[in-house]
Structures are given as C-alpha cells and as structure tokens.
Specification:
alpha+beta, ATP-binding, D-amino Acid Aminotransferase, Chain A, domain 1, Dna Ligase, domain 1, 3 domains, Rossmann fold, 348 residues, 10 helices, four-stranded parallel sheet, EC 6.3.4.18, purine biosynthesis, binds magnesium ion, binds adenosine-5'-triphosphate, globular, nucleotide-binding, 17 strands, nine-stranded antiparallel sheet
Length: 348
C-alpha cells in the first residue's frame, strides 16, 4: 500500500489511478484546472494553483511517491515535490516541454528530427521558410497538444500573411512520411527497459484518431532504430516510468517527431492487448515494483478515439464482442475533445 500523488487530473491520470488502486495504492490528484475525471478514482483532489507552495507542500506530505500525467506541469511545481520521491525526474519535463530543447537533445543522441528553425519574429519566419522551404509547419515551442498551436505554411506568401502569436515558435519542414508510429517504453528504477509493440498511428487534423497493430512493414522495419534512440533518451534522462517517442517512418528511416514524458494515447490498447498495460507498468516503475511483461497478447489491435458528441450512444459499440469501451466520464462535451476510446482485439 501507500499513496501515489498524480500531478494532473485528466483521463491519463484516471487510467493510471485505476491501475494503482488495483495494486493496492491510494491516489490523490493535484489538478488546478478542467474536468478532473481522475477524481472518480482518487481519494482526494487538490484544486489549488500550480504555484500555491503551501498546497504543494500539503500534497507532498500526503504522498509516498509523486508522478504526473500532464506534460505541462510547471517545472517549479515538479521541483517542489520531495527529491527522490518524484518519478520521472523533473529533468524529463524540462527537456520535453520545449520543442527546440527536445530536438537539440535528441540530435545530441544521434536522432534525426525534421529540419527546423527557431522563430521569434516575422523576419525569422521568412528566413526559415527561405532556408528550409515550404510546405512546413509553424508550431509554438511550448504548451501545444492535439495539434493546437500549429499553422501549416504552404508558401512564403502564407508566412507573410500570418499574424504571429506572441510566443516562442519553431518552423519545421513538412515530413513526407509513409506512416507515423510511436515507441512506448517503461524504464524501472534499476534501469531495466521494456518496450511495447509499436502501433501505426493515424492522425486527423493533428489529433490521434487510431492506433493499429500490426503496424505494417514500413513501420516494423524502422522500429529497431527508433527503439535504440528512445532507449538512449530514457537512459540519458535516468528516466523512471513510461516514456513515449513519436516518429515518422520515411524512406530515409525514422524521423523523430516529439516525445511525451508520460503514458500516451497511442498506448491505450495495452490495457486489453498487452500482458501488462502502460498504466500498470508506469505505476510499478514509480512505486519501485518489478516491471510486468509488455508482450502483445492479441493477434491484432485497433484503438480508436471517441471525440466530442460521438460518446453519446457509445455503448452500442459493445454489440461487437471483441470491443472494449472506455468512457472517461467527462462532464463537458466539446467538439474534437477526447471523450473516450474503443479497443477492438483480433483474437490470438
Ligand atoms: P500530441 O497531441 O501528439 O502531443 P502535438 O500537438 O504535440 O500533438 P505534433 O505531434 O507536433 O503535435 O503534431 C501533430 C501531428 O501533425 C503529427 O502527429 C503529424 O501527423 C503532423 N505533423 C506534425 N509535425 C509534422 C511535420 N514536421 N511534418 C509532417 N507532419 C507533421
Ligand atoms: Mg505533443
Ligand atoms: Mg504528437
């Protein structure tokens, strides 16, 4: 037993807490904003601000170990947790929260990101488009998710017409990929690493729509190299817990897109489709327990996100005996919002 503190209160925290409860832990969440769906499975929720030092101290005092489910937890918040009792180490947040840092870090380990340029002014955007060419994607360096904070640039004329947001930016050359995939691994406190099978991930409008396994020849051929990089990232950060790296499979090999220092939407299929889910292994790692087997137990897996109003009537999907529904219990339905997911297994 013991108490696990989770920074953030969304569906990732909810599924993490469900695994923790199964293993005999109690969970409490620290979640200043939003629809805190993790509250359904947590004993307590702190809704104080991220910078409320008294509340953070009170939260930490209640926890044996702390982790996060949200990658934009302020560094100062993570650092306010007792050292050696927060996993992964906050340095992982620091690396991943800024797309420019993240790319430089991965290049330092021999990884290949898309061509990129730092952009802090309209002039720098024009120079970046001149140098790297178009099409490309302009992204905010921080705080983006589900494709938010991104602008497709088709030509220098598009770049010229764009009113730049008041935030640090990065311009990336558009990668002509054959497929997208993710490497999800868990690293234990003793440094042991285990990988789940890589799914092919399909995005629509910048939001993950489906994760499919088998992932196909193109992805399978690039997983070894992508795993080598992801493993080096994890080792370099002395990472503890589940780490995700997203890649584009191209004719020149795997191109690193971004990392998420946490459990990941493209790993939801592991709840039913793997011997041990990403959520359970994340909890095992942060709690210092032995890691579970990550092997895929089905012959095929298909995870589909349920967005917005599609959640209404989702029980109808269960007419298919091989489908499993996860409804996150969000109170507010918004268009494009992740409300739940469906995992369909092909039996082994
Ligand atoms: P997430 O919800 O995964 O954190 P995000 O908002 O951080 O998403 P990215 O992963 O950077 O966004 O981009 C979202 C999607 O947009 C990618 O999965 C990919 O489909 C497309 N995309 C992003 N960058 C590029 C690129 N340089 N070339 C081609 N496609 C891209
Ligand atoms: Mg991202
Ligand atoms: Mg992404």
């Amino acid at each position: 037993g013991g108490t696990i503190g989770i920074l953030g209160g969304g569906q990732l925290g909810r599924m993490m807490a469900m695994s923790a409860v199964q293993l005999g832990y109690r969970c409490i969440a620290y979640a200043p904003d939003g629809d805190t769906v993790a509250a359904d499975v947590c004993d307590d929720v702190f809704t104080n601000r991220w910078d409320d030092t008294a509340a953070l101290a009170a939260f930490a005092a209640k926890c044996d170990v702390v982790t996060w489910e949200f990658e934009n937890v302020p560094i100062a918040t993570a650092v306010a947790m007792p050292g050696g009792r927060i996993f992964p180490h906050p340095r992982a947040l620091e690396t991943a929260q800024d797309r420019l840092n993240e790319k430089r870090f991965v290049e330092g380990l021999g990884g290949k990101p898309a061509a990129y340029a730092r952009v802090d002014s309209p002039g720098e955007l024009m120079a970046a488009v001149d140098r790297l060419g178009a099409p490309g994607i302009l992204k905010t360096r921080r705080d983006g998710y589900d494709g938010k904070g991104q602008w497709r640039i088709g030509s220098s004329r598009d770049a010229d017409a764009l009113r730049l947001p008041d935030a640090p930016l990065i311009y990336e050359g558009f990668v002509e990929f054959g497929a997208e995939f993710s490497v999800i691994l868990v690293r234990g406190q003793d440094g042991e690493i285990r990988f789940w099978d890589s799914t092919r991930n399909v995005h629509e409008d910048g939001i993950l729509s489906a994760s499919l396994w088998p992932a196909g020849e193109l992805v399978d051929a690039q997983v070894v190299e992508a795993r080598r990089l992801a493993g080096e990232v994890a080792d370099a950060l002395k990472y503890v817990g589940v780490l995700t790296c997203e890649f584009f499979a191209t004719h020149e090999g795997p191109i690193f897109n971004e990392m998420a220092p946490r459990v990941h939407n493209s790993g939801h299929w592991t709840i039913e489709g793997a011997a041990t889910s990403q959520f359970e292994n994340h909890i095992r790692a942060v709690a210092g327990l032995p890691l579970g087997d990550t092997a895929t137990t089905a012959a095929g897996v298909e995870m589909r996100n349920i967005l917005g109003g599609e959640i209404e009537g989702a029980h109808a999907f269960l007419a298919d005996a091989d489908s499993h529904l996860h409804d996150y219990g969000k109170r507010e339905v918004r268009e494009g919002r992740k409300m739940g997911h469906l995992t369909r297994l092909t039996r082994a």
